[in-house]
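[audit] Reproducing an earlier prediction to check determinism. Same input, same settings, fresh worker. If the tokens differ from the archived copy the diff job will pick it up downstream; this log only records the rerun itself.
[audit] input (158 residues):
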Amino acid sequence: MIQYMPFIGETLGRFFGNREKREEYQADARGAVYKQFANEFGHSRTWWDSLIDGLNRLPRPIMTFGTIWLFYYAVKDPDGFAESAQALQAMPKEGWMVLGAVVTFWFAAKLPKDFGRLKMYDTAAKEISRKSDERSRDVGWSGKVDKRYARDDYDNLN
């Protein structure tokens, strides 16, 4: 029985691999990643690199603090806030879509399905849909088929 032990170990090694070699490979791969990272980012930073990195970090805090400031502005100057809100209502739908794309880019937010849709268009669309449904009921194919082929009279199909 002892003579078959190496064979069992080799067979299991083929299916599950060698743990020591796997860990050694992972350590080498991590070392290569760190080495590449050091080569790419290990150089001395210039003032330009620092400026660009700082600008790249600004949009999120600006949008966050801007949103908080809107609440403060609504409490501090309600008349001015109401005027600003009325001015924003005049912005076309496309402008809101661009703003939504920018915010989605920075925050990876999922916008609601009705984002940017105006309520008056919803009411008009519902009215059109209702009228269309009424027309299809009045002159629909199913009504014509029911009139032509009475379902309970199998002898008279014409």
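[audit] rerun output stored. Observation attached for the diff report: Helices lie at 5-16, 19-41, 47-56, 59-76, 78-89, 93-107, 119-138, 141-148.
[audit] end
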